[in-house]
């Protein structure tokens, strides 16, 4: 049975692949933090900056798609391993994202560099 944390991660992944910005943002807290792992460097904070960045990403990469290769959860942390294709620059990448869920919303995301 899928837990609530994995459900939120899946909802944002589905919305990302559908390029549905409103559904994508719906699972994030207003003060979401986007960080780099392992340095913990803050890339940006807040739902409005996320809206701007992902709206541009969707516009510039209309065929981009992230295939979920694996997912694990530990308490309120979800770790996804994805294969991203369809980027405008032709580059295909493996990505690892970690999501922390608090009060029913994703409040932190770390992208592994």
Automatic annotation (TrEMBL):
<dbReference type="InterPro" id="IPR037401">
    <property type="entry name" value="SnoaL-like"/>
</dbReference>
<feature type="domain" description="SnoaL-like">
    <location>
        <begin position="10"/>
        <end position="107"/>
    </location>
</feature>
<dbReference type="GO" id="GO:0016853">
    <property type="term" value="F:isomerase activity"/>
</dbReference>
<dbReference type="Pfam" id="PF12680">
    <property type="entry name" value="SnoaL_2"/>
</dbReference>
<keyword id="KW-0413">Isomerase</keyword>
<dbReference type="InterPro" id="IPR008317">
    <property type="entry name" value="UCP030561"/>
</dbReference>
<dbReference type="InterPro" id="IPR032710">
    <property type="entry name" value="NTF2-like_dom_sf"/>
</dbReference>
<protein>
    <submittedName>
        <fullName>Steroid delta-isomerase</fullName>
    </submittedName>
</protein>
